[in-house]
């Protein structure tokens, strides 16, 4: 009886290993590109949130400066509260 044995060519193990590594690398590149796109979309969303917050901050600072303007405070004090600047004769100095 003659047994027929197939012999693989020399170096075929290395070729198989290289092929497997190429497939793994291709999958890793695909995954890396997908992950990069996800992170880029997340970063764009965070930048948009930051820009909206900065715009809101600017509006709040402007509103604060409007509410605390000296002329506005003086007008409210005179019109609504009936306050006025005292005359020099009305000022009393207290000695320590």
UniProtKB/TrEMBL annotation:
Residue ranges crossing the lipid bilayer per the database entry: 12-33
InterPro entries to which the protein is assigned, alphabetical: Cell_div_FtsL (IPR011922)
Membrane association type: Single-pass type II membrane protein
Keywords in alphabetical order: Cell cycle, Cell division, Cell inner membrane, Cell membrane, Membrane, Transmembrane, Transmembrane helix
GO terms, biological process: cell division
UniProt keyword Cell division, yes or no: yes
Compartments, as annotated in UniProt: Cell inner membrane; Cell membrane
Keyword Kinase part of the UniProt annotation: no
Subunit record text: Part of a complex composed of FtsB, FtsL and FtsQ.
General function of this protein: Essential cell division protein. May link together the upstream cell division proteins, which are predominantly cytoplasmic, with the downstream cell division proteins, which are predominantly periplasmic.
Family the entry assigns: Belongs to the FtsL family.
Listed name of the protein: Cell division protein FtsL
Species of the source: Pseudomonas neustonica
Gene: ftsL
């Amino acid at each position: 009886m003659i047994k027929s044995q197939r012999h693989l060519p020399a170096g075929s193990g290395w070729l198989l290993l290289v092929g497997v590594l190429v497939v793994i690398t291709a999958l890793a590149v695909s995954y890396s590109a997908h992950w990069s796109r996800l992170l880029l979309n997340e970063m764009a969303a965070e930048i948009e949130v930051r820009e909206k917050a900065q715009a809101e901050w600017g509006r709040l600072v402007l509103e604060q400066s409007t509410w605390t303007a000296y002329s506005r405070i003086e007008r409210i004090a005179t019109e609504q509260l009936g306050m006025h600047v005292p005359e020099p004769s009305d000022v009393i100095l207290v000695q320590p």
